[in-house]
């Protein structure tokens, strides 16, 4: 059963890239074949996996506007079993560039399914790292996906955008992709020393119930150091609290998938 | 001398809203008349100043598409001497809505200067809180401004987007607003206990020199607690390290303006 998961939240800096990179790595570590699609113009996921700007010939932008097929853009990463379709700065103007294209909301979904040997058949999990907006690029990710993983920072401002995100998911499900659901909400940068984290966690579990993963990702400096070495936290420091939390999250995700 | 400052950085979660709200409050505290314009669809600056969604009749979106004039959208805030033009969720679709409008990059600048008694004449400082993207909404803020304040989180991923931001500012300065310059870069969420913060701070000062403010904003839980009370940190806890840092930043900003 192939799974395409969009990692999305229009609130900035909540841990989308960190979750896509590290959860993807944990799934690859247990033998799943993983593709990461970087849809953020900043290209943090590409850099965090050791793919520097000069190595990115074809990117997710070129794929969406139809200049190249998806297979030609895919590169191996520093993680065995995980490939990437890298991002480029062109994505920041994508909303206008895609506006006049036919099937503009389906460009990514079509690219994943195109041809005699569709790219999506070559992977067990496809993770899509989204930019911090509800733009046409993020809509493309939602249309291409069967589930959404929502990283949620344990902060007051981060709670505020949740209802707008859920509204958008409902709208995409009703009009563009009936298979879409929120696969799970993962609490990130959880700091057990301050009340705010616990308060936000309680509010979210009350509001969303079982959709929220048991696993909380703690605030852990090793996680933020790893990208400067072009590696996910799991390769940079396997035993740190952050890496262990992403390993737990992967097993919780697999259990949910199995039970579904 | 009236100053319009855009608080911008396409990297998410770096402290744009926190800086616009608290620096604005610190300027109001020393007697400056301040207007905050919230251009982010999440509306965090509006909420952080106690303006809840149901109180926002006309918003920055309505102003930009020409449905209302700027003066009709302005509300007082919990801070004496600071008004706000609030945001709404409609902004998330703004790039497409503005695409066909004439002078689409100048809509905000025109609204600020419109009429016999232009709104911009009623304030000493106008701070514009931008969304985490280089979209047409952020371009509007850059075209309307005389300076840009760039909050920069002391993290590796945050450094990555800096060159793209500087490139965009140069392009806007060359084609749309010759008066535009980077007024300053402010280091945020600085954590003196970890090396990463110090390393990023050194890298940025080496790359940008004096553009970087001396004042660093420390990571401080009071800052992230304040928005849940609808108040800026300066009103929530005046003596905490975070509030004091924003007061220092305001005096450093005023000194730069005076010397300029
Ligand atoms: N659990 C954690 N502990 C410590 N730092 C973290 C953690 N998760 C993420 N970070 C750091 O916080 C910052 C924001 O995370 P990240 O870039 O993954 O968020 P994002 O949602 O992808 O941001 P954007 O909205 O800009 O795409 C990064 O510098 C990252 O290294
Ligand atoms: N100095 C600080 N210490 C502790 N927490 C902070 C600090 N500055 C900001 N925060 C918190 O970090 C989070 C991100 O800050 P903020 O929302 O201001 O960033 P932003 O750049 O406006 O985000 P976005 O890109 O989503 O607009 C918020 O929850 C805020 O309360
Ligand atoms: Mg990201
Ligand atoms: Mg903000």
Walk me through what this model shows:
2 copies of one chain form a homodimer. With 260 residues, chain A is of the alpha/beta class. In chain A, 43% of the residues lie in helices and 17% in strands. Chain A has 13 helices and 8 strands. Chain A has helices spanning 16-29, 44-48, 60-64, 70-73, 94-99, 107-113, 136-144, 156-160, 162-175, 195-208, 221-225, 233-236, 241-259; strands at residues 3-7, 34-38, 75-76, 82-85, 125-129, 147-153, 181-190, 212-218. In chain A, strands 3-4-2-5-1-6-7-8 form an 8-stranded mixed β-sheet, with helices on both faces. In chain A, helix 6 packs parallel to helix 7. Chain A is globular, with a radius of gyration of 17 Å. Chain A starts with a strand and ends with a helix. At the A-B interface, helix 2, helix 5, helix 8 and helix 11 of A face helix 2, helix 5, helix 8 and helix 11 of B. The complex binds adenosine-5'-triphosphate (ATP) (2 copies) and magnesium ion (MG) (2 copies). One adenosine-5'-triphosphate sits between chains A (12-18, 40, 44, 132, 188-189, 217, 219-220, 223-224, 227, 242) and B (11-13, 132, 155, 157).
Query: What is the helix/strand order of chain A?
Result: EHEHHHEEHHEHEHHEHEHHH
Mean pLDDT of chain A: 96
Oligomeric grouping of the chains: homodimer
The distinct ligands, each listed once, are: adenosine-5'-triphosphate, magnesium ion
């Amino acid at each position: 059963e192939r799974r395409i998961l969009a990692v999305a939240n229009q609130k900035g800096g909540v841990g989308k890239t960190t979750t896509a990179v590290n959860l993807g790595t944990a799934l690859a570590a247990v033998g799943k074949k993983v593709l990461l699609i970087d849809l953020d113009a900043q290209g943090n996921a590409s850099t965090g996996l050791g793919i520097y700007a000069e190595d990115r010939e074809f990117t997710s932008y070129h794929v969406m506007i139809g200049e190249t097929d998806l297979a030609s853009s895919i590169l191996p990463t520093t993680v065995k079993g995980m490939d990437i379709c890298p991002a480029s700065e062109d994505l920041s103007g994508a909303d206008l560039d895609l506006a006049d294209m036919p099937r503009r909301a389906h460009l990514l979904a079509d690219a994943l399914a195109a041809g005699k040997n569709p790219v999506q058949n070559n992977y067990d999990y496809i993770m899509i790292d989204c930019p911090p907006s509800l733009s046409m690029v993020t809509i493309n990710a939602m249309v291409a996906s069967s589930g959404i993983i929502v990283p949620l920072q344990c902060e007051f401002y981060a709670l505020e955008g949740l209802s707008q995100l859920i509204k958008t998911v409902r709208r995409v499900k009703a009009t563009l992709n009936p298979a879409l659901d929120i696969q799970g909400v993962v609490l990130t940068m959880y700091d057990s020393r301050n009340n705010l984290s616990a308060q936000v966690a309680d509010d979210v579990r009350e509001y969303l119930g079982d959709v929220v993963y048991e696993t909380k990702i703690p605030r852990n400096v090793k996680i933020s150091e790893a990208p400067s070495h072009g590696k996910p936290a799991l390769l940079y420091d396997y035993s740190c609290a952050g890496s262990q939390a992403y390993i737990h999250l992967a097993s919780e995700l697999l259990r949910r998938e199995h039970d579904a």
